[in-house]
Structures are given as structure tokens and as C-alpha cells.
Amino acid sequence: KNREIGISFDILSGHTAHNEITSYANRFADMVVMATHGRSGLTHMLLGSHAEKVALNTEKTVLTIRPSAEIFDKQNS
User: Fold this and answer.
1) Which region, left, alpha or beta, applies to residue 24 given φ > 0 means left and ψ of -120 to 50 means alpha?
2) What is the pTM assigned to this prediction?
3) CA pair distance 34, 52, nearest whole angstrom
4) Given CA atoms 58, 60, 61, 63 in this order, what sign does their dihedral have?
5) What pLDDT, on the 0 to 100 scale, is given for residue 61?
6) pLDDT tens digits, the chain, 77 residues: what are they?
7) How much is the pLDDT for 22?
8) What are the backbone dihedrals phi and psi of residue 65, each rounded to the nearest 5 degrees, phi first?
9) pLDDT of residue 12
């Protein structure tokens, strides 16, 4: 049997991205997939985590992934 899963995505950003993502997800999404830097310790305490804030505040399932450092380096170039 062939089974298909429909997938759509939207890329959202803003100064308070976690608020926009949470609001959008609660209205339209079945699941949220987010990349994370995987920071810990003092860096996490100072910078926080948008993925963590979304996971704590949305009613939806959240899957976080940590891409390789090369991907983050390319994005920030």
C-alpha cells in the first residue's frame, strides 16, 4: 500500500520569534519542527532558547533537531 503524508511549512521570524511561532502553531499546525543550537550552561542562561520556549508554550508536539555546525556556519555567513 502507498501511504502519503501531506507536509507544508512556513518560515517565521521576528524579534520575538517564539511568540509568533507558538501562536501560529496553536492555530494551524499539527506538529512543530525546530532547529536548536543546543546551548547549555551560562550561554543558555544568558541567551535562552526559542525552541525551548515554543515547546513549553505550545499545545502541539515539538520536535527539535540539532544540525551540524557547518550548517549553522553557512547560515551565519
Assistant:
1) alpha
2) 0.60
3) 10
4) negative
5) 92
6) 778 878 777 766 566 777 888 888 899 989 988 888 777 777 666 666 778 888 888 889 999 888 777 766 665 55
7) 87
8) -130, 150
9) 60
Residue with cell 494551524: 28
| Locus of grid cell 525546530 | 34
**3-state SS assignment for residue 32:** strand
Long-range contacts of 25-33 (CB under 8 A, 24+ apart): 25/54, 25/58, 25/59, 25/60, 26/58, 26/59, 26/60, 29/60, 30/60, 30/61, 31/60, 31/61, 31/62, 31/63, 32/58, 32/60, 32/61, 32/62, 32/63, 33/62, 33/63, 33/64, 33/65
End-to-end distance of the chain based on CA atoms, in angstroms?
44
